[in-house]
Amino acid sequence: MGKRAWTIIICGALILAIGMGMRQNHGLFIEPMRMELGWQLGVFALALAIQNLMWGVAQPFAGALADKYGSRPVLLVGVFVYVLGLVGMAFPQGPMMLHMSAGVLVGIGVAAMGLPVVLGAVARMVSEEKRSTALGIASMGGSFGQFLFAPVSQGLINEYGWSIALATLAAIAALGVFLALQVNSKPGEEEHHPSQINQTMGQALHEAFGTNSYILLNLGFFVCGFHIAFIVTHLPMFLSTCNIAPEVGATALAVIGLSNMAGTYIAGVLGGKYSKKYLLSIIYLSRAAAILIYTLMPITVFSTLAFAVAMGALWLSTVPLTSGLVGVMFGTRYMGTLFAITLFTHQIGAFFGAWLGGYFYDLTGSFDGAWYVSIALGVFSAVVHLPIKEMAVKRETKTA
After folding, report:
1. Does the keyword ATP-binding apply (predicted)?
2. C-alpha–C-alpha distance, residues 343 and 347, integer Å
3. What average pLDDT is seen over the chain?
4. Mind listing the domains of the chain with CATH numbers?
5. Are 189 and 124 in contact (CB under 8 A)?
């Protein structure tokens, strides 16, 4: 990989650290905000559920714009909207404002700074042989951000309160402008792919939705979103119900991020050597096992940190494999758009993961129902990946 490719990989990873990594610690703010504002847990759960849903809705548009105009302008707009959302979240004047800022604006901002835009840029810069590894390295950015901003967020909350903490994070996020300027990957730089000869975006979309393997990949990625959103949103609150200090929740989220830096990189490397669909099945089945074991054990600091290590290794390790499968099937010309649609399904799962956690708690006073659903979905996703055909889609050519 050349110098330009490495620049885009590193800057893209740092953008993901600011966007995805920072927002994965928003669960740390729920309890102090709830205690000070006096709102029900469901208000915050709905805000973060809206965030995940808007993230998903906006991603196909962000991916399509990046495929057409390049990644840089989309990333710049994303940074602006993301910072605006964090500022609004820092000073909410009511539940509706919280839903608009933490939900709508942050969701749209993260989408424009997200995986389809960044990984689409990275995929265009590297050969197919090195693509899985490059995607794994770039994807590590989200995990690095989670690892970095979990203790930073908790420290700022403890020292200055949740409002100033969020305003400080908004200032840090504004630095993403300088990183976005370095990601100058443009459409047309991708390698030739047999399914892309004279293909329009409309044809690419028709082809994708007519491919059963792509549909199955989307169904499986729904589960990834559910798991991640439920845990990052509700693990700190869950631990507080078990009389465990809030700092342990921040530490657990940081450990997940640290562990997943290794897990994502290893998944990317393995994806270049072995079947991506079987690796994904193993990951989802392992998630179900980890959640089952954790919920059956007494909830302690040790068991929580052990769970964080296990889940961290499996956290975003799905991303280079899932995006890699999209590249294998359809090439990289419209990868930003097609992977964004897959991530939309991921974010529908994230909506339900964030919302159902709060719903179950307000209804029963417990998170048990959401844990059980997480286990069942893990098994479902492990099974649904097995029939996927891991090969380039063949297009029919018409002759006069």
Report:
1. no
2. 6
3. 85
4. 3-186+200-384 (1.20.1250.20)
5. yes
